[in-house]
Design brief:
By secondary structure, this protein is mainly alpha-helical. Helices cover 52% and strands 8% of the residues. It has a single domain, classed as Jann2411-like fold. The chain contains 6 helices and 4 strands, in the order ααααββαββα. The strands form 2 sheets. The chain has a two-stranded antiparallel ribbon with strand order 1-2. Strands 3-4 form a two-stranded antiparallel sheet. The radius of gyration is 18 Å and the shape is globular. The relative contact order is 0.13. It binds zinc ion (ZN). Zinc ion binds next to loops.
């Protein structure tokens, strides 16, 4: 999508999702960071991220109400991501997503070259979040969405892109979280034998 800036979306070493899906991945991880650290200024962090990635003008306003909306959108996204691991999507989450589509005013827009895309007709933060939701819907259409998952390590839950051949990955990193899970299983097996 025009204007999005793919700068430092993820920490060094983390594997990004392809194309614009990396923005959704970055957003899902950013808001988790805000939720984990309630004491930090969530409004400022959200604004900085949206401006940095070209989703909001530097002069754009972000307030507490926007942050609540952003957190609600984040929870809806996380619910959808869990469905990629086989969990059923909750009915309340589906209602929330449909409300958000209405709030973002997502519409089909034709470009001068005749191609069609989804675009939010809302303004400000609602427009920024609507652009991310449009990316999700596009990724669902092209099949890349089902590879976006949350790490199986409960202490991590980092959203990663599963690039394994048969989409059977469980951890953000085989070296870090996958290795820990293996060590835990090994310890448990040893303990049960003693
Ligand atoms: Zn992990």
């Amino acid at each position: 999508m025009a204007g999005m800036k793919n700068r430092d979306l993820l920490p060094v070493g983390a594997k990004p999702a392809p194309d614009e899906l990396a923005f959704v991945q970055g957003y899902a991880n950013l808001l988790r960071f805000i939720q984990m650290r309630r004491e930090i200024d969530g409004v400022a962090v959200l604004k900085k991220w949206l401006v940095r990635h070209g989703l909001l003008a530097a002069a754009g306003r972000v307030d507490q109400q926007d942050l609540r909306l952003a957190l609600s959108f984040h929870d809806a996204l996380r619910g959808l991501i869990r469905a990629n691991e086989g969990t059923q999507v909750e009915a309340s989450n589906v209602r929330r997503l449909n409300r958000l589509v209405g709030r973002f005013n997502l519409a089909v827009v034709f470009a001068p070259d005749g191609s069609a895309r989804l675009e939010p007709l809302a303004r400000g933060v609602e427009k920024a979040l609507g652009r991310l939701l449009a990316v999700v819907i596009q990724a669902m259409a092209d099949g890349s969405w089902r590879r976006l998952k949350a790490c199986g390590n409960p202490d991590c839950q980092w959203v990663y892109y599963d690039s394994s051949k048969n989409n059977s990955g469980r951890w953000c990193s085989m070296l870090v979280c996958g290795g820990r899970a293996k060590a835990r299983t090994y310890r448990q097996r040893r303990a049960s034998r003693q």
